[in-house]
Amino acid sequence: MSDAGFGMGFGFGGVLASALEAFGPLCVGIDPHDFLLQDWGLPSSAAGAREFGLRVVDAAAGRAGIVKPQVAFFERFGSAGYSALEEVLAAARSKGLIVIADAKRGDIDTSLAGYVEGWLTPGSPIEADALTINPFQGVASLESAMEYAADNGKGLFVLAATSNPEAARVQGARVVGSASDQASRTDPLATATVSRAIIDDVSAFNAGRAEQGPIGSIGVVLGATVDFAALGIDMNSAHSPALPVLAPGFGHQGATATDVRRLFGALTPFTLVSESRSLLQAGPRGLAAAIDARAEEVRAALV
Ligand SMILES: O=C(O)c1cc(=O)[nH]c(=O)n1[C@@H]1O[C@H](COP(=O)(O)O)[C@@H](O)[C@H]1O
C-alpha cells in the first residue's frame, strides 16, 4: 500500500495512514445491542454477540479499514462474552482490519498498565491495535500507557470532547496551565477548557515522539455532535506530528458525512468517521452494501 500523502512513518500512525489511503476514514462500530441482535435473528447471549461480531467483520473486510468493537456489549456476558470478543478481535485482525477496542479504560498509571498490557500487547488474547482511554485521572496518569502503546506500534484514543450532551459540564470546565498552551506560558493564570487541555497534552506527547513519523500514535476522541468553538478547540491549530481523531456521533447521533470538513477543519485528513447503529441496522444481509455506500459517501465528502 502506498502512503496516505503524509508519508507512512512507522508505529500506529503509519498503520492508520495506510488504512486511510486504502479505504478512507469510515470506522465501522461493532455494537451488539439487544435490539440489533433481535433484528438480526440472534440470541441475546455471548454466542449471539460472537456471531454478530463475526458477520460485521466479514462485511467490513475489504470495504472499510477500521472496526471498533464496543467492549461493553461483550463484557455484559462475562467470561463467555470475553471469549466471543477474543474471536471477533482475532478474526478482524486476521482480515487486515485495524481494530480499536472501545473499552474506555483509565486508572492510576500502575493499574492502567494492566489494562494496556492486556489490550495492546502483541500476542495477548485480547490484542487490539488501539484502545479508547478515559483521562479523568489526569493525562499525566496516561504517560506510561502512551509510552507502552508507542513502543509497541499500538495506539490510544484519549476521550477529549465526547459526543454525549452531558459531557459539556465537565469537559467545558476551565483549568489553569494547559501543558502546551502558548497563552499559559506567558500568563500562568491563563485557562483552557478540560477538552482543550487534553488535546494539548496528547499533542505534546506525540511531539516528543516525532521520529515515529508524520502521524502520532496517540489520538483523541472528538464527538461530531460537539460545539468545538464553545470548548475553545481550534481545529486549525497546528499539531506536529498530526493528531489522529476518533469521531463518533455520525449516523444515529445526528452528524453526517457532509459535516466532516466543517467540523474537523485541518484535522479532517486524520479523522476517523465512526458509526455503529446507523450501519448495523441494515441487518446481516444489507450490511455490506450499507458499508460500501457510507464509505463512498464519506470519501466523496472529503474530495
Ligand atoms: O469512544 C467512542 O467511540 C465514543 C465516544 C463518544 O464520545 N461517543 C460515543 O458514542 N462513542 C461510542 O461510539 C459508538 C456510537 O454508536 P452509534 O451512536 O450507534 O453510532 C458507541 O459504541 C459509543 O460508546
UniProtKB/TrEMBL annotation:
GN (gene name): pyrF
Official protein name in the record: Orotidine-5'-phosphate decarboxylase
Record keywords: Decarboxylase, Lyase, Pyrimidine biosynthesis
Keyword Lyase found: yes
UniProt record similarity statement: Belongs to the OMP decarboxylase family. Type 2 subfamily.
Orotidine 5'-phosphate decarboxylase domain sequence ranges: 25-291
Gene3D superfamilies: Aldolase class I (3.20.20.70)
Organism in which the protein naturally occurs: Gryllotalpicola kribbensis
A Pfam cross-reference name: OMPdecase
This protein's pathway: Pyrimidine metabolism; UMP biosynthesis via de novo pathway; UMP from orotate: step 2/2
EC numbers, comma separated: 4.1.1.23
Catalytic activity field: orotidine 5'-phosphate + H(+) = UMP + CO2
SUPFAM superfamilies listed in its UniProt record: Ribulose-phoshate binding barrel
InterPro entries: Aldolase_TIM, OMPdecase_type-2, OMPdeCOase_dom, RibuloseP-bd_barrel
